[in-house]
Amino acid sequence: MMVEITRNNFEEKYPEIEGRLRSAVFVAVDTEFTGLLSDPAFKPSLFDTGSERYGKLRRSTEHFLIMQVGITAFRFIEDKNKYKFVYDGVPYLNQKEEAHLRKELSKGSLFHQLDRTVDLDDEKSIQLVCSRVAKWAASAVQGDTLDLNNLDICQGDIRLSYVMHKELRQRFPDIWSFPEGGLIRVKKISHMQRKALEENEEQHKTLEETVMHSLLGFSRLFKLLTELKKPIVGHNILLDLMIMYNQFHEQLPTRLNDFKEEIHRLFPVIYDTKFLSFQMRKILIKEDMWNSNILSHLYCFFKEGRGRYLVLYSPIIELEDGAEICNPKETASNVSEQSQDLNVKFHEAGWDSYCTGYCFIRMAHIFAHVTCGSLVFGRILTSREHLLGVSSKKNCVNVIRANISHMCLDGPDPPSDRPNWLHVQAKGFRTIDVSKVAELFARYGSVDVKPFTRFRALVAVGNHGSAKDIVRQFQKHKELRVSYYHPLWHSSVFQTFLGTGAVVSCGMCAYFLYRQFSNIQTPSARSVP
C-alpha cells in the first residue's frame, strides 16, 4: 500500500504506520531536503579523511531542512508485504526542543507562543467560532452543550485546535471545552464546576499531550524506529542519517567517533545499498554489471534487466493488494515507457525509499547465494538468510569522493585504498597555477588539486591506474615536475634543509679548493730565489 502522509492525515494513519513498522523485516528510508552542497568549503574532495568529511557534512546540515521523509516497511518471502508512504509537511521536534516544549506546557506559556503563530485566516476562524459560542451562551442554561466540527474549523491542525480550546476557555468563564473525537464540545457550567475543571490536572494533560503529539509529528516515528531496532536501509545513507539525527534527535556532535557511537546505539544495523553495489562488483562478471550504480539505474537493472535473474528463486516483491511491481513479461516498448515514468518519480522520498529497499532485497538474495553456497542451492530463501548474506557488510556506509571508500559506523574506518598523493612542482621557480594543473590532469580521471607552497601543489587521484598514467606522461614535461608525494622528502623543512645543505656543501667545496690551491702556490713561492 502506498500512502502519502501529510499534516492532515498523520494522526489518522499513525497507528497503521506503527503496525507496519513493527511487523517489518527491515525498513528503507530516504530524505529530500532543502539546500545543496554548493559552498566550496563543503565540497567533497579526494583529500578528505573520514573525520574531515564528517565535519564538512555536519556544518552543511545547518543549512538544510527536511522536506520529505520516505519510509517503506518490507515484509517478504512468506507474506511479501510492502507498505510505503511519503511524509510531507509533518512537523517534528528534536529532543532538546521537546524538553523545552514540555517545560512551556508545564508553565502554561505555550498557548501564548502558539497564539502568536496564528495567521490571519486562522484568526478569522477563531473569531467566528467565538461569536457563535457567545450567541449560544447568551440563552444556554447549565448543562447545555454545543458541538463544533473540529475538522471543519481547524482543518486537521492540532495546534490550531489547541489554541481554539484555550481561547474559548479564556474568553468565557461559564463554559468549558472538551475534545470529543472530531468535535469540540462546549458545555455551559457553574462557577464551582469551572473551578474543579481548572484544578483537574487530567483535563489539562489530555489537551496538552494531544498538542505534544502533533508537534512531535515525524519525531514520533523516528523514536519508534529507534525503539524497534529494525535494520535500516538507505542509498548513500550517511547524509540522510546525519540530517535525521540533527532534526529528529539532537544536535550533531562535533567528533565523528561520538556520532558513530550514538547512531550505532540508535540503529544497531544499517545497510547502504550504494556500498553493497560496490561490493557486488567484485563478484559479478562484466557482462552482468550495471552501467551505473546511482539509484535509478540500479533499480532499473534489478527490475527490468538481468539483475533479477542472476540467481534462482529471486523473491517476488509485490504491493499489499497483490499488484506485481515487476512484470518479467513486459515488452521492450512498455519497459521504455515505464522507464521514462520512473525518471519523473525519482527524488521523491517515498518512491526512493521503496526503490532502495527493492534493490536491497535483490542484492541480499545474490549475496546469500554466494555466502551460503550449496546450502541454499535449489530452494527459496528466508528473510533471515537474506540478512545473513549481507551481515558482514552491515554498518558500512559509502563516502563519496574521499580518501576512504566508506565509513564503519560500528568501528574504526578502513585504511585508504587510494594511490599516494602526487607532488607537482613548477620548474624554474615559477608560481604554480593550481587550476591549470587540475585541467591538465582531469583527462586522466578524477583528481583534486590543492596548493602546497607557492611553487608546488598536491594532487589526490581517484585510482592507481590514473596516478601511474599521470606520472608517466609528465616525466618530460617542460613546465611541471611530477612525482609521488613523500611526507618527509617533500616537506618544507626538509626542502629548506636541502637548500641549506647545498649552500654549505658549495661553501665547503670552495674552501677545500682554495686550500688546495694555496698549498700548490706556497712551495713555488718558496723556490723563488
Automatic annotation (TrEMBL):
Entry-linked Pfam families: CAF1
Family: Belongs to the CAF1 family.
Database matches in InterPro entries: CAF1_poly(A)_ribonucleases, Nucleotide-bd_a/b_plait_sf, RNase_CAF1, RNaseH-like_sf, RNaseH_sf
Molecular functions (GO terms): 3'-5'-RNA exonuclease activity; RNA binding
Keywords: Exonuclease, Hydrolase, Membrane, Nuclease, Transmembrane, Transmembrane helix
GO BP terms in the entry: nuclear-transcribed mRNA poly(A) tail shortening; priRNA 3'-end processing; siRNA 3'-end processing
Assigned GO CC terms: nucleus
Residue intervals passing through the bilayer: 493-514
Protein name: Pre-piRNA 3'-exonuclease trimmer
